[in-house]
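In practice, a research group might receive sequence data for several interacting partners and want a quick structural hypothesis before committing to experiments. The following worked case mirrors that situation: the sequences arrive first, and a predicted assembly follows.
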Amino acid sequence: MNELVVEARQLSKVYVMGGEEVRAVDSVDLEMRKGDFVSIMGPSGSGKTTLLNLVGCIDRPTSGGIRLDGQDLAGLKEVELDRLRMRKIGFVFQSFNLMPIMTALENVMFPMEMAGVPRREQVRRATELLTWVGLPKRLNHKPRELSAGENQRVGIARALANGPAILLADEPTGNLDSKTTKEISLLFRQANREQGMTIMLITHNEAVAGVAGRLLRMRDGRIVSDS
Amino acid sequence: MALRNLTRRRTRTALTILGVAVAITFTVGLLSITEGFMNGFNMSAKERKEDIYVLPKGARGLGSPLLVSSGAEFSEQRVQDIGDVLNVKAVYPFYTRQIYFGDGTGSVMEGFFVLDGVTPDFLVDLRPSLEVEAGRLLEQGDYLDDQLNVVVGAEIARSVKLQVGQTLPLEVGGLVPTVIGILKSTGGLDDYIVYAPLQDVQQALDREGWVTGAAVTVTDPTTTEETADAISNLGSEEFYCQTSEQIAGVVKNLISMARAIHLSVASIALLIGVLFVLSTMLMAVSERTKEIGTMRALGVHRITIFRLIVTESLITGVLAGGIGCLGGVGLSKLITWAIHKFASAAFLQAVVSPRLLGFGLLIAVLIGILAGLYPAWRITKTNIVEALRYE
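A structural hypothesis for the assembly, expressed as tokens:
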């Protein structure tokens, strides 16, 4: 059996808004094994993004615990969480969040540069990844010179740069037209099938959710179905 | 990366750099006046051997050649009386006047210089360190020979492009001064003086029998004050005395005061510079909140981002410092030109020393670092989730 990449136990995140307690994530238990492709659907405010942020170590739970790739996140110092995100997590954002001053190649090299990968290796791997996402001729273009779909491809290549244990995508097709949405969805499936990448993907689009092998539905901070 | 970030908003970055550069330019420019004055005085003080200056009542200034010509003078007959005072070793009368030269076109060839009519032994006894670059010093034969032979300071010779044997572009009482010697540069006030035989100057100016002052040396330096009092008592209606030490003290006070004023200006420049860069950096990092949130999500530690922001601010400061220092050099030249042109003080000049340039750059670096600290601290404190939501 594949090893556990994500193991969340009684995970909760509680916010206080206007003096009232809001349970954004409420006692969630979740397991994801290596190679799992999980999509999460649910209405706005159901806790999808908060759950993704907790798994992605950019937010801390109010209670409960998470193990990521075998490592317990409880009690980790900020610098250790930074290192964990750099090496084990790849983020794909709805609005791409690429560095506007960098070319596609530099954007993909950036996480490797921060991780101390030698420059020659950075260039080799970034070129390889951009070729894999279908942008071999757009290496030296800046984000403003690329279409939305191309930008998201660069975003995916960047997320894969340091060979993460899991890819976390928050509505990655939210800003794309239907044709590009389909292409990007297939790219995620390709990453999952060809590279065995573990993926957690949030979407409002049933068709996008359909490319994943497992679908979680959330409501009021809880997972209400897991199929 | 920091450098590339600065090029995102080129106009804003350029304006910020320009603003700080102007502050540095004025700081360096103003401090160059103090620097020049200190330089000139220190160099000159080393060369002077006189212990007391005897100056006519009503004369403004601090001895020769710092004496600002006021038309005040006293009778040369009193020189003998001064020489008879106990403890006086020798008396060196002089007649000093500021002379306008130039062709009236307002060119750099125009200005004032100090014509110092002195006795033959004045330069030998009181300015022993003065050396000639070309020609010779004044000799006994130059006195009362129906010519006005002069020895010119290095800076005068340089600015008017004089050579030995040439004449100065002016007339003094109908006589055209002929250069017989050019002094080596001292870096002090003597570079701006034209020395001529006392009697010839008096004759040319039709002031025979009158002097604008006298330099006195004493046999016992411990009694200089008492000797000065004794000389003053000789003719309290005609002249008064200043000892070299008093002059040094007054000048030192003036320099300290000027320095304090200029440092206050520099502090204000520093404050304005910091506020200027601070506002730019706050705006710049606020616009990049989401981007910095992304960097944090990708695992970049907050210290790395802190360093990046401070480096951007520091680069702004250093660039502004470089431009500001260049501007300061230009401004000091302009100030020197203005002093010579409008203030009739040929011996004053603004000087930008390497130390002053270093100070200007240091201020710029401080502006860069100080202005970067708060925006860097603020942005790195922002929660990653909130930063990623920022629009």
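Before designing any experiment, note the following. Chain B touches chain A at residues 1, 4-5, 7-8, 290-291, 294, 296-302, 304, 384-385, 388 (CB under 8 Å). The CA atoms of residues 23 and 268 of chain B lie 9 Å apart.
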